[in-house]
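Section 3.1 - Work completed
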Amino acid sequence: MKTAVHDFGIGLGILAVSMNAVVALAGALPIAGWTAAQAAGSGTTYYVSTTGNDANAGTADAPFRTLDFARRRLAPGDTLRIYGGTYHEKLLLENSGSASQPITVTAVEGQEVILDTPALTSQNINVEITGSYNLVTKIEVRNSRWSCVVIRGTNNTVTHLIVDGCVSHGIIASGTNIRVENSEIFNTVRENAARTDGSGWGSALKVERDADYVTFMRNKIYHNFGEGVGITMGNHVTAADNFVFDNFSVNIYVDNSSNVTIERNLSSCTDDTRYLRNGNRPAGIALAEEYYSGWGNRLTNIVVRNNIVGYCGAGIAYWGADQGLGGMNNILIEHNTFYGGTRGVLYVADETTNTREARVTNNIFGTPADSGPWVDEPMRPLVAFQSNFWVDILPASTTGALGTGDKAGDPGFVTTPTYNIPESFALSPSSGAQGTGADTSQFGSNASHGFGAVPTPGPAPAFADVPLDHPYREEIERLYQAGYTAGCNINPLRYCPEQVMNRAESAVFVERGIHTSTYDPAAPASQVFADMPLDSWAAKWVNGLWVDQYTAGCGTNPLVYCPWQGHTRAEGCVLYLRMLNGADFDPPQPAGQTFSDVPLDSWYGKWVQAAYDAGLIPPCQTSPELRFCPDAPLSRGLAAFMMVQAKGLTLP
């Protein structure tokens, strides 16, 4: 089994000084909405083991035996941790969490959990989610008799799953606000392993009828005997940053769905004969309107942008509507690279009834000379082709694909394009495909480069509110990848980078930082701080800091912790220096003053200097004088930067 990488949660933290005495502050990245502590399980944490007993208390030392017994006890904020082993039973999540208190099911850190049900002849689904606000992560699911994973309900997420050996679909999304991320799906749709089915096969990753607001992101989908990604009768669907290759039918298929965005995917094919259909490679991306009773033709508002399709049969195709009266209704195909196709780089079927506002622009099309583009004649006046780059020669006017502003020649890739290396499709500075391309902004495009896909497409930002140009984007992404942050909101996934970090949430980071990213401290038997009642979600984390000697509170007589107080930049220096050097670290007094606003006799002077010297934090101003702004709030974005430096995490 391939071990998954991270789970939702946070970790890293610290201690700090107060003004009049050394006041330990516990620091962390604050999480509003779905808090870090809550994502980690601010309620009860239960454990299951193949050697446990359902008569046990469900603790780490006395785990339950069955998933079914454990899952019935899950309430908002609870976490179910599964010890390594193979479980021959279904995981059914009927209970619901909330936006701020999701239910989490995950493997115990570092252990391999497999849900395998081949012997259960009546079991068609291995993991089924029917409640809301559930998160399932770090589990291998295999050998179902139908779909391995089915996600119904609302606001549910699965991430870092390994899914394989399913008789039909790998993962089905049929609810609202559903996310499938960072998962690997292969060897599914086994019902068609003989490759004799004429039609009607399943998909590795499937959007089912009436699913709404579904996101498939950063998944690897390959060697399946049906479609790779199948978006059927869905609405508001995004498939982005996926690597999809060698699937029997179509790698990415948009079927009778609306408001769909396909972007930044690598869709490619090889000559692996196990996954050829009648000896042919599959299409890279295809659109169609198959017949479904009572549904009609609803293919509309589709964006196919900034994808790389390499060495497949057709590069991109519109196959028409089963019963006619369909069409390409508001379809935009732009800034993609389609290269090395074997059966026609582009095909548009005759379906004029609903065709309007259909555009194909700023793409690179490369294909063998005997396998060029084709647009059925009735569609030619209705589909606008403009400013596309054609490898070697322009298409003949008789193909219907030649447009104004088109160019032809050598695309000038930096190297021979390889099916699994998107960077190999990058354009050299002297490429004939370099150019400004058509102005597509009026059609909803935000692309500004020339022909083809962005040369080196990287992963999309994990968080909707952390754009590519955010100064701390790489650090925030790294924390997410390493499992130290869950963000501040689930759907859409947000980080809240400008929000101020507070001490209650920081306690989670400290404890996770000095233990593990999935550490869950025991609930305290008695109250230590006067302002931290035992029924608070933060109580066990703050108590953990006290036990580990990472905090002395923020005041005495009575002893208080000030859980909702925000951190300053100066306090952040203490926080991450202690993270880097241990709870007892005390920096030396600096020899001279570096920052104009940090006097040597201030309580934070030595902490600021030591943090700056260690590269943990940048100044707030460099001109006309070097300033630190010690009393300015510590934002979550800057805290992410400091945490990555303190933990020595490698940037993505």
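Second construct:
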Amino acid sequence: MLACAGCSGSTPPAPAMTDAGGPVGVTVAPPLIDWLDPAAPELAAPPIAPPALAPCPTGWRESTTDTGIVVCEPWPEGGPAVCPEGEAQFPGDSACAPIGDPCPADTFPAGLPTDRTIVYVLAGALSGDGTRGRPFGTVGEALASAPTGAVVAIGAGTYDEPLTITRDVTLWGECATRTILTAPAPTTTGTPTGVILVTSGSATVRNLRLANAGRTGISVGGAAASLELDGVVLSRVSTQGLTVWDGATVAAHDVVIRDTQPRARDGLAGNGIGVESATVTLARVLVERNRYMGILIGAAGASLDATDLVVRDTQPMMTDASAGGAIAAIAGAHVRLTRSVLERNRMIGVLCDGATVEIESSVVRDVLSQEADRAAGRGIGVQQAGVVTARRLLVERTRELGLYAGGGGVTLVAQDVVVRDVESREVDGASGRGVNAERGATVELARAVVERTRDVGITSHAATVHAEDVIVRDTRPPEADALAGGFGAHVQEAGVLTLTRARIDRSNVYAVSAVDADTQLSLEDVLVTETTSNPDGEGIGIGVFAQLDASASLSRVVIDGAEGMGIAGDSGALIRIADAVVRGGRSIAGIGSLGRAFGVQLGARAEVARARFSSNRDVAVLAFGEGSAIDMEDVTIEDTMPRECASTTCASEPFGIGIGSYWSASVTARRFEIARADLCGVHIAGGGQLDLHEGAVTGAAIGACVESADYDVSRLTDGVAYYDNGTNLQASELPVPEPTEWDPTTRE
């Protein structure tokens, strides 16, 4: 046993350790956090600007989620309607409405222009000349005789014939419900085909339905070809509903493309729309129940501009059950989506692969994993140097990932975005992350909420993520492993993660973590609350954790109610803290240990300026092991309580220590106050080193607990006042807290 200096009959402590009788005039600068009132009973938060999804587009419904977020819903209260053939409901519409003009009482279209040549067609007519009284019996006959600029007026009926347009002409059906074009499968391969094929001229197609065809519905190709679609339904055609290629231009309004079938000869394709090196404009277009991809666009010069677009219920490829995504933009394409809804698709909502995509005032939801392997299910994915810019975006109920960016040159910029309710992928129950950046990608988030995701809310894996005005909350463990943790934000493998004006609530195991050499974590104006441990301590709850040589910088950070530890550094990490509060640390439920504010071990280092550690447990601030060091100035450590198990399973090791330095670690504090520690103001054991300058230790059972009788206590008394302690100095053997065994933070 060691000597007990200051006890009855022992050598009295050095004069500097006598009771100072009260404060000695040292001023400890408080944390400079302008949004925090330390005297207020309610916990303040940084001035985080919420995502501004409103004002909503015309007809959209402003709605408040169960977590209080204002979002814009494209459908009425009951959700989208199930519309009959020939009708559709577009975003902002209150109900189904006919596609194109209403069916007239007459056999022929109503409202035909009076300043153009009209050529009439009626199915089954014989020996016609194209007049209203003697219509042609086929559309092909009418096209052959129609002059440039003419209107071919097509009466009610079904026309089984492929059509080729090579000049300016309009095909005008009686109505989309009763005027039907179809054609059999082509007899040759290698050349473009379609129920309607446009190779040159400016054509218009309106009030028609193309259905039950063995070939592509409409094919438009060549720089000399353009087509306007208005009030057209394409249903159960083959290969692709609409294909546009080689410099052609298409504008579509009030169009439905549904149930496209795979190519008969090989079972491939079945896309709703395909665009290659061409320009397409969509307004009020519904693409549903097609196969492989709802819309596939690629190659340099390809452009898609869509407003009030719906892509939903895309089915996988017939042959191998792959894909089923809503939109894929690849190889230099450009896509712009406005007021659009992508829902109930598979694999991906929007894939940007070497393309540029702009999204505004849109919704991506209910993405399922790919049927073939039950993997993926992502909301938006960017790869191969692709660029995505999103504004006023809701992504919800996806699988595996909400937003993904991967690869050098990839950029994802998202403003006013909500990502919520991401589940793990079906195949293995892994992942479920909200925002995931990896392999050199760059992600910028502003005014975002990421909630109820799994595994990690925001991840930077060898990537760069800058997020400001962000809330991450209620991250859950992946479905496959309830003990893996649900981190709020995580960075690894030389990645960069910057959080500015952020709030991280109710994470599991680690709220914010950084791992690996050259990894950089920066927090500025951040509140972290209610981080929880796993049951029975299988994963300790830590507010901010850096390990394995990572670097972390914390400025104006508040950590409240962490179940385990507020801030921790491990294995060579470097943590710099300026203006921080860590308070209300909780011991681990069911075990009753820990509840610490801040600690380093295994060679980790920390620099602290202006911090307050209040109402924590166990040991408020501690360092373990050779090479571990903490350098602090302007620090207040107050009301450190025993572990919660002190009255039951750990009565012999209750602790309640302000500062602890153990096993050759080093701690230095300047301008400090340690007040009301339950057991020791400071505790030194196992060769730990502690130097105190200009401060006070008050209200502890023992001011300084020093394991070694020959420790140079002058290192604890440089301008330091000890007063109102039960005993100012005790040199005796006390139980020493154990270093913490962390679970690894590395994520796949």
